[in-house]
Give the backbone structure.
Amino acid sequence: MEFDTDKIAADCIKAIADKIQNLKTLNIIVAGKTGVGKSTLINGVFREKMADTGMGKPVTQYMRKIYKKGFPLNIYDTRGFELGKDAQKDVKKEVLGTIEKGLASKDINETIHCIWYCINTASNRVESEEIEWLKDFAEENKSAQVPVIIVLTQSFSKSKSAEMRNMILNENLDVVQVVPVLAEDYVIDDEYVAKSYGLDVLIKVMTETLPDELLDTLQNVQKASLEAKKRHAQAAVATATAAAFGEGFSPIPFSDCALLIPTQVAMIASITAIFGIEINKSIITGFVSATLGTGGATIVGKTIAANLLKLIPGAGTLAGGAISGATAGLLTTALGESYILLMEAVFKGEINSSDINSKVGIEKMKGLFKKELKEVKKDKFVIFSKA
């Protein structure tokens, strides 16, 4: 049975485009005094440079909306917080007004999902007016309950930032968490560089805070935590594997795995969207050729079935449906895990996306897939065969 890898690649590209287009828009308000490092924080977390000077449009007197076309993220940046009591009241009023407007729209793409309140750790103190502002805001935010995360920016000293964090926690503020961060490496002198840290913790807190329908978006837009992307991608693989296992139990010949292709295409689309890496048809064709084989003669055909029987001890003694279900799960897991490794290599700059369709790239992917098949066989087959 032959399959057209070009068509499968085209289906993947369409599925990726649809997945990205259908991501919900994440909306974050970023508040705090001027000079606390909001722009550095924003650019450290997200894969698009959002906080260019002069970027965005005014929303109110003290707020501007920062966005990029086609990128599912809006940052609402407050300004002039330290300009006095009246200005602070105006900022609070405008933040609450923006929240209320979003709620009134009843559209998740317009709703404010989170607030980052930034405090500069390097200042060595928390202003009493800021604590007062946060307490007053919490009272007026009770109905909307938009989660607030305090971000301690410019945390050059971990001991000082820990001290400030404890000080704030002792105020019993209505906040989700207090997260110290150093958003980018800081050169102290020629011999010492303070390495950035804490952004991955911020992503973890966001993951635990945001509604489920925004988690794909968060992983797509963030660049601060590779581990978070991998965990989310592996969850997508697990979902596809469960679906493939069920499909494998349908009464079809063992080698006829064509039913798996839509499930695997959707899985590849999900993983690509999570990593936020631009993938063209040429790259996907290279991956499909390396794993599915030219003409579909390996994974989806009789050859791969025979090879898997050799890999799986005792497979020949199982019922036909169990063999097919286990094989479907093995294939889908191995395909997903090898694609995650490929995306990780591109994310880390170990391989250029343009090199994936090269001879070296295809051989690398073949090796990844074969290795994952063996690993998955050892870890997963017992589960599949008992299901």
User: Anything to note?
Assistant: Residues 92 and 175 are 16 Å apart (CA to CA). Residues 25-221 form a domain with the Rossmann fold fold (CATH 3.40.50.300). Confidence is low (pLDDT under 50) at residues 294-309, 311-323, 381-387. The first strand starts at residue 26 and ends at 32.
